[in-house]
Amino acid sequence: MSNPFENDNASYVVVRNDELQHSLWPATNPVPAGWTVVHGPDGRQACLDHVERVWTDMRPASLVAALTGDAPRG
């Protein structure tokens, strides 16, 4: 059985959680609770490129808010 997250010929979406963390997700799989589609469906590389462009701060939003005193951005 092959890994559904590494199929270059499959369709994917990019999902984001409340902590503003992003993940690649197979478009044919149900989106997990607590995650929202923010890009796609699209090809695997296009989704990875999107994540690289938009997810520039890997820290969870709650940590950023605690450090800066700001409300999480969304």
TrEMBL record:
Domain of life: Bacteria
Domain MbtH-like: 3-53
Protein name as annotated: MbtH-like domain-containing protein
InterPro entries xref list: MbtH-like_dom, MbtH-like_sf, MLP_fam
GO cellular component terms given for this protein: cytosol
The organism of origin for this protein: Streptomyces roseus
GO BP annotations, alphabetical order: siderophore biosynthetic process
